[in-house]
Amino acid sequence: MKTFSQAVFLAAAGRLDDLPPPGPPELAFAGRSNVGKSSAINALLGRKRLAYTSKTPGRTQTINFFELAGGARLVDFPGYGFARVPRPLRAQWEQLVGDYLGADRALVGVVVVMDARHPLTPLDRQLLGWLGDTRVLLLLTKADKLGRAELAAALKTVSAASRREALLFSSVTRQGVEECRGLLEQWLAAGRWNKKPPAKGM
User: Could you tell me if 134 and 100 are in contact, meaning their C-beta atoms sit under 8 angstroms apart?
Assistant: First the structure.
């Protein structure tokens, strides 16, 4: 947990010009609104409210940066798929995330957060397509809401359909927390700089 135990808020970017200067390796988190992304980040960082959680979809309107031990960064993207947010605002957020993905940054991988009960929605699949060859972990949150057989089936289905690594996770029972930390620390240690195609929108 050493890498994640001393995380501090670094910056919130609402425009491309607001992004912190590139340099340190970055781990990005993306996911549909209300799938438990902020709760997952807080669980990984061992904090209660470092990443803001809300029952209101589309609450996060900026890309939020957190500095980890050793100087690496955790990057929290705005949620996507929020139906009640005005289209112009959605377009603004989509452009911001697209600008980030198309920029020359040391992105070592993206954690795509999905509700284990409703994984691989059309928007999730679209995002995975945009990410191309970028290293991706599919984090299936709210695992405490399903039984063992349902969890096993969800994990098998997602892994087979996406051909990406997937992990069951619960911020309530802490299932998968240590495993996720260990994997992300390996990503940071490898330090691979993956160049990504620009996203066209979310």
Answer: no
The CATH code of the domain that includes 51 is 3.40.50.300
The pLDDT assigned to 50 comes to 67
Residue 68 forms part of a structural domain? yes
| C-alpha–C-alpha distance, residues 197 and 202, integer Å | 14
CA distance 51 to 179: 20
Q: What is the rounded distance in angstroms from the CA atom of residue 180 to the CA atom of residue 184?
A: 6
Chain-centroid distance of CA 194 in Å reads 16
Indicate whether 18 belongs to any domain: yes
- How long is the chain? 202
For β-strands 63-67 and 8-13, DSSP reports them as antiparallel
Structural domain for 70, as ranges: 2-190
* Coarse DSSP helix, strand, coil percentages of the chain, rounded to the nearest 5 percent: 40, 20, 40
Model confidence, pTM: 0.87
Residues of the chain with pLDDT under 70: 1, 49-60, 82-86, 88-90, 192-202
